[in-house]
Amino acid sequence: MAKTRAQVAELDPVWARILSEAEDAVRHEPLLGGLVHSSVLHHPTIERALAYRVSLKLASGEMSEQILREICDEAYGSDPDLALAARADIVAVYDRDPACHRFLQPLLFFKGFQAVQCHRISHWLWEQGRTDLAYLFQMRCSEVFGVDIHPAAKIGRGIMIDHAHSIVIGETAVVGDNVSMLHSVTLGGTGKEEEDRHPKIGDGVLIGAGAKVLGNIRIGNCSRIAAGSVVLEEVPPCKTVAGVPARIVGEAGCPQPAINMDHLLRGS
């Protein structure tokens, strides 16, 4: 039996809000009706909508949308944390991006959100030992969104990647919860070593546009990395670093820089 809107709102408030916003979007712009219905209103759950959206974006002559949809449906059916993380990501984008005015927007229009969800599927495949399929998802995500995240990289919840162009995250990188980063960020290595070689980003970290964090170093919780910085050494929690190479230039400026999204270096 189909659930009523009130039941959906009680069980899944994020999805209920997306449905409401989708109906409102169709009323205000009927030309978007086909897109909104196929991407949102046609689906009974957010998991099904996410599977549809990811498979539609990544489909190509090399692998059809139907096969990709089956893979995504399997992933969401097997691991409820995938959709829980997606919900947290939607809320994060809405809370932190001043250009985001509805929960619907990340799902339909924001490639940063969409790329992170593609990575979550590729990481699930990697953990299942299906590495070639995981690499296919990585390749298509890079081609479609300009976001290249190795399937083995571990990404937390509540992630906001604003603009999301030219993002690179390496194989052994770890990104904590509630992290915000802007375009052209690299979490990379420093050479050809094959062991643990990529950064570990703590919870609540804000990474500015064009910043490069290189090597197996720890970036402490609730720290800030200024735009254009090259970070080669560990950063303590709640500090701001800037420069090439980056140095500590002050405190983080607030308890939650990734949520506050303040990039200014006052008093530095």
TrEMBL record:
- SUPFAM superfamilies (UniProt xref): Trimeric LpxA-like enzymes (SSF51161)
UniProt keyword Secreted present: no
What does the record give as its pathway? Amino-acid biosynthesis; L-cysteine biosynthesis; L-cysteine from L-serine: step 1/2
Q: Does the keyword Repeat apply?
A: yes
- Domain named Serine acetyltransferase N-terminal is located at 14-118
Q: Known catalysed reaction(s)? A: L-serine + acetyl-CoA = O-acetyl-L-serine + CoA
Q: Which GO terms describe its molecular function?
A: serine O-acetyltransferase activity
| EC nos | 2.3.1.30
Q: Which CDD domains does the record match to this protein?
A: LbH_SAT
Task: State the UniProt keywords alphabetically.
Answer: Acyltransferase, Amino-acid biosynthesis, Repeat, Transferase
NCBIfam families from the xrefs? cysE (TIGR01172), EPS_EpsC (NF041874)
Instruction: Look up the domain of life of the source.
Output: Bacteria
The organism named in the record is: Litorisediminicola beolgyonensis
List the protein's name.
Answer: Serine acetyltransferase
